[in-house]
User: Which sequence fits this backbone?
């Protein structure tokens, strides 16, 4: 058929709107999206015809193209992916997953009116922060607490309250950048605090702080270097020493502990990671940490410590701008609750469970996924091997967690091609590549996702 005839054969929009598939789609899809998808399907056929790519076509061919266009258009842009990387707190993939209780709390808060800022006992206005403050106090031993949008906001707000126009003394070894967007010096500048750097990159002594304390000093700041470690000839001033100095000089000590670790990981065979409880016990005045890293909850920044300082922070106008929303509060409450009983926390919070679950469990699961994929009868070679997972999120950077992975190689496609195709699947499967193979780490994959992974592979080959 000639191009002109083919173009004439293209149906009109009105006709397509009578197609059963289209009528069906209109039931659950916004009409403008249906129309736009039809138009795009027709346009793409028109272009293919003009480019001589099509010799003939049926109405059903157009409908197929419409169906794939509308599926993409209609699915959310922020969507589920399968994290097969073995990086547990993967900042690019949304950090911590919420536990069931937290998810249910979010749904209830979102679908209903709630007592967000309403005191049910007095029938008067209440505090947004009261719902989680008691829990945080109970779990951490803090006198008071307040919660904001994220830890970057928590640090900025704390400095803005306690140190605006004054000097914050911080060790050069702690002027770190975390995750590309949190740079300690920049956050300090935004807060209005003046940065006084003391010591050197690898060694800072107590006298470095002491010699720099003046009338202008607002806080002594300690920052957890989170995502990197200096080895060798190093010296850091301990929190105890800093607190002692702060007390002597009447200067508050603020610690940005970063990850928000609330259980002592050394009990489970990991290297000791400073906990929020320990910092408070050591007498730090204010400690700030993230909600969605090792704590295993939603994105949030928690500020805990002495009541006199937390009260000032609550009154800062900036708190209003950085405030946490009802859904996050609901999720945070549902998460924090488990820390009342640590044995429950390590079982129920996905982040903690993924870090602590035994490798043997993942070996069995890897075997099952391997069998599942082999049954597809596709052209690739699968090996089950021991490997390491990472905590991620700038937490415990040197900790390697033993795990089991599937290493997959195809003779007809490169690892890069496989990775890209898995990533482009409707439910993207995000994998690592190493030495010409793609790697699926079972530690961050759920059993419920095995089917989807198999479908993704079928689609790839
Ligand atoms: C991650 C981290 C931050 C930033 O926290 P967000 O919750 O991502 O804003 C700040 N300080 C330290 C030490 C961190 O590890």
Assistant:
């Amino acid at each position: 058929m000639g191009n002109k005839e083919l173009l004439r054969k293209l149906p009109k929009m009105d006709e397509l709107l009578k197609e059963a598939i289209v009528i069906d789609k209109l039931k659950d899809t916004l009409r403008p999206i249906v129309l736009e998808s039809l138009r795009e399907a027709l346009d793409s056929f028109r272009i293919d015809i003009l480019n001589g790519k099509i010799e003939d076509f049926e109405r059903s061919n157009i409908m197929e193209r419409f169906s794939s266009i509308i599926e993409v258009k209609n699915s959310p842009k922020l969507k589920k992916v399968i994290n097969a990387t073995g990086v547990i707190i993967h900042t690019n993939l949304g950090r911590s997953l919420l536990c069931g209780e937290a998810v249910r709390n979010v749904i209830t808060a979102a679908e209903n009116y709630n007592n967000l800022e309403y005191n049910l006992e007095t029938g008067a206005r209440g505090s947004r922060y009261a719902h989680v403050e008691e829990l945080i106090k109970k779990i951490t031993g803090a006198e008071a607490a307040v919660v904001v949008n994220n830890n970057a906001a928590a640090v900025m707000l704390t400095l803005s309250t306690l140190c605006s126009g004054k000097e914050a003394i911080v060790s050069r070894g702690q002027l770190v950048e975390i995750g590309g967007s949190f740079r300690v010096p920049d956050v300090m500048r935004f807060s209005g605090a003046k940065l006084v750097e003391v010591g050197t990159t690898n060694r800072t002594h107590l006298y470095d702080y002491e010699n720099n304390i003046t009338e202008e000093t607002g806080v002594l700041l300690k920052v957890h270097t989170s995502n990197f470690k200096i080895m060798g000839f190093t010296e850091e001033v301990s929190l105890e020493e800093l607190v002692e100095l702060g007390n002597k000089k009447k200067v508050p000590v603020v610690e940005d502990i970063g990850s928000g670790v609330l259980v002592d990981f050394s009990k489970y065979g990991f290297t000791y990671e400073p906990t929020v409880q320990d910092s408070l016990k050591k007498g730090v005045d204010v400690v700030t940490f993230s909600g969605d890293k090792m704590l295993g909850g939603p994105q949030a920044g928690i500020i805990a410590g002495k009541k006199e300082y937390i009260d000032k922070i609550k009154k800062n106008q900036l708190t209003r701008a950085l405030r946490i929303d009802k859904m996050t509060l609901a999720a945070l409450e549902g998460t924090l609750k488990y820390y009342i009983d640590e044995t429950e926390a390590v079982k129920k919070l996905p982040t903690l469970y993924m870090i602590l679950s035994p490798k043997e469990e993942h070996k069995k699961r890897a075997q099952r996924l391997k069998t599942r994929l082999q049954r597809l009868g596709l052209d690739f070679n699968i090996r089950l091997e021991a490997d390491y997972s990472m905590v991620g999120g700038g937490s415990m950077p040197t900790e390697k967690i033993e795990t089991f992975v599937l290493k997959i190689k195809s003779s007809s496609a490169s690892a890069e091609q496989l990775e890209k195709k898995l990533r482009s699947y409707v439910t993207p499967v995000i994998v690592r590549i190493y030495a010409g193979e793609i790697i699926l780490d079972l530690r961050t994959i759920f059993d419920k996702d095995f089917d989807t992974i198999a479908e993704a592979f079928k689609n790839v080959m």
